[in-house]
């Protein structure tokens, strides 16, 4: 399956997007939260659709609406989960339809600047299942396209009942709100989605002078000091007490729900993230006031009609108004780090715009500007080698749209070709209306590079490079994560190959 062109558009630094991530067959994927209606448990009854592809799991009823379900692991050719015990279905809104996608377990909620998200959508192309990606703590999270999911071949297109459409036109629809639900000591609690800054995995925490039985320490989140509070203890419930993960063979499902008010941040340690729950005001039931936590547990979402467990909603205004929480938020902001907005303003004044590069491996690490790459495809054997082609030309492949000439960079640059590549990739670039594929051993990551971090290759080093490689390499960077990375001048390479 090809990954379309990363089309890096210019965004405002303050164009913030919110994503929900989840795991499927070893991959971490994400969807924009505005495309998610809710997340529900895997229905007990899913009706198979005759003659449908195997990745169409079937249909189920959701509050009177029939929803088709895609099995993402089968759709993406991944290994299926051994157990369905923790599986969920994310209900996705796209093109006035609903569809469900089945995944293994929930991940995090991530608030990202749009400049951090690399778009893979070619101009005018809305068919790629993976529309982008972002680099998060040395792992790549890929973004699914809700539009492409709705257009998957063989997916049943279920129109909404005409009576519903007519009634919907006559009256204003009830406002649908969303909360993110999670477990704390077996209780199902939730926080309104618009009040959540981010949800992150529990890292190793820094010691805080304000630590006590409820505050375990603090974490840094892009220039902000976030105190981490054991929510179970704060609410007077049972807590495991230990912050350190005890069993290295079992995944730590605990998450930190980060809330923000002004310059103050608070992180709530919860047992796991359960789902995204949609509700209307008619489903809200007020909770009786309990001494000691007045107003913090604000409402209950009544889901009895759907046969699901009720959800208790935490009031974030009341949470920040609590003297203990207010003291922690202000204290950590004043003691440890400057506010995130101050950090951003300083970066804006002092740093030039970053460049985005794609790092790949040949016999060493190299990189190309990501906007020069049209797509990334798997290497395959369907190559036709023209008679008389030079040794570095592997052949020509026809993908049904155009012809692509595939070039073996290892042969071109005089590198060792005796060792076979385990899982080679082809970086497709375009020059003067023609497509060229560059074979690489692997694609490593996508990184942002400050222009000032690039160093000219010293002549002493350049003189020891292969003559062909020397013409296309002029700069190098020293990455803390990857070490030395050579920056490949694709334009120079294409001009020589086609000259």
UniProtKB/TrEMBL annotation:
Pfam family of the protein (one): CheW
Domain CheW-like stretches: 16-155, 176-325, 353-499
Record-linked PANTHER family: CHEMOTAXIS PROTEIN CHEW, CHEMOTAXIS SENSOR HISTIDINE KINASE-RELATED
Designated name of the protein: CheW-like domain-containing protein
Originating species: Luteibacter jiangsuensis
Lineage: Bacteria, Pseudomonadati, Pseudomonadota, Gammaproteobacteria, Lysobacterales
